[in-house]
Amino acid sequence: MEPSTIWLFFIATAALLIMPGPAVFYIMARSIDQGKKAGLVSVLGVSLGGAVHVLAGAIGVSAILMTSATAFTIVKYLGAIYLIYLGCKTLFSTSNGNHSKSPKTNHKKLLKIFYESALVEVMNPKTALFFLAFFPQFIAPSAGSVTVQFLLLGTIFIILAFINDSLYAILAASIRKWIVGRKGNSKLMNRITGYLYIVLGVFYAFASPSKT
Fold this sequence. Notes:
212 residues; mainly alpha; 9 helices; 0% strand
């Protein structure tokens, strides 16, 4: 793959990442709800989920998902149901002590956040669709193995997305600090994060393999 192609991909990816997508809103919801550490751990989980999509795209699994209406529908609805469940759980949870300035983020809780975040990203069919639509524009069969090129572009994308998502997680943690200082902060944060999860769930439910 030509260095100029890699640089072009780098610039195009950076431009796309400036506009926050579903993963960013999910990460911000985590940061607002559970603090910066939880937000950054969710970034790691989303990155792992992205890596799964890259690997699947490289070996052709994503292409199968995109061409199978049944498989696509199952994946998108499972992801939607899970996010809506998280939203409802947050909205109707008791908030006494849940949003203190130093939220409890022990190892088990962080590990759970990591796995949940990875699962949310893996079950986002839009990610697979995006990779299959975007990456081929920078891949040339004459430049070598298409699989290797796909993996290379995927690695660059995940690294850039990790940096971008981390900045949003830190920003959301700052918003959390501002909310914590206000009266009724627990209910407000529950509402913000709960509605964010539900909106993302609806977004997943209406995802279509025919739309980019």
